[in-house]
Amino acid sequence: MEYMTVLYRTLLFYILITVLYRFMGKREIGQLGMVDLIVSILIAELAAMSIDNRDESVYLSIVPIVLLVVVQMTMSFLSLKFSKVRDCFDGTPSVMINRGVINFKEMVRQRYNIDDLLTQLREQHVKSIEEVDYAVLETSGKLSVFKKKEGKFGDYPLPLVLDGEIQEDTVKQIKKDSKWIKKTLESEGVKLADVFYAFYKEKSLFIIKQSDLNR
User: Fold this and answer.
1) In sequence order, what are the residues at sequence separation of 6 or more whose Cβ sits closer than 8 angstroms to the Cβ of residue 157?
2) Can you give the pTM of this predicted structure?
3) How far apart are CA 151 and CA 146, in angstroms?
């Protein structure tokens, strides 16, 4: 009888967790953020405890698992609507190499040492830092590497404006300020709140407006 109980609970949680993860979205499978990872660990622990403690009702684990999924979906919605919530829980990308120069200040802030940097560069088949234009440490911990093209530096890889908000740290990286952003937008007849995405290319600001997305 105990074997049947274990089998029943295992199959139940397998089906339940599969369905719940489908509701949580494909991002949960392919790329786990900090909150996603915490929720995944707690769900696994609750499921394991329920399978192991056969004398307790299975609902004692199902209820908190469903609650965790609801909390996660709520946080995902808030992160989608509010960039500050997204930055608080997911963090922001960090530029580790800027135009071939290592950003030691950012490395210290992220507790990311030179061995970590060199290891991830080798994984990207980069032999020397001199080959790198930009290297960005993503919120997932992965290092995105942009090599120089024909020995020249390329365009800055991070957005200057995102969802109508100026990315102050990013703007400083290109040695500009928020006044330059606002002045450029005014010259284009665009309000800051109407900007979905703006990036730096060929020493100019390229703008994608909210209205452009609905075309």
Assistant:
1) 95, 134, 136, 144, 146
2) 0.61
3) 12
How far, in Å, CA of 21 to CA of 208, rounded? 33
Task: Say if residues 188 and 178 touch (Cβ distance below 8 Å).
Answer: no
Show the CA angle centred on residue 204, arms to residues 215 and 180, nearest 5°: 100
Strand positions, DSSP E, the chain: 94-98, 101-102, 132-137, 143-147, 161-162, 165-166, 195-201, 204-209
> In the prediction, which pLDDT does 213 show?
59
Q: Which two tokens stand for residue 130?
A: 């001199």
- Residue whose entry in the numeric block shows the structure tokens 């979905």: 196
10 Å Cβ neighbour count for 128?
9
**In contact, 68 and 39? CB cutoff 8 Å:** yes
The Cα 134–Cα 142 span in angstroms is 14
Residues 6+ apart with CB under 8 A from 112: 94, 96, 106, 137
Distance CA 201, CA 38 (A): 38
Unique residue bearing structure tokens 């030691």: 104
Tokens, residue 33? 């953020």
Give the tens place of pLDDT for each residue, 125-162. 888 888 888 899 988 788 899 888 765 666 777 788 88
Cα torsion for 159, 163, 168, 171, to the nearest 10°?
Answer: 30
Contact 106, 96 (CB under 8 A): yes
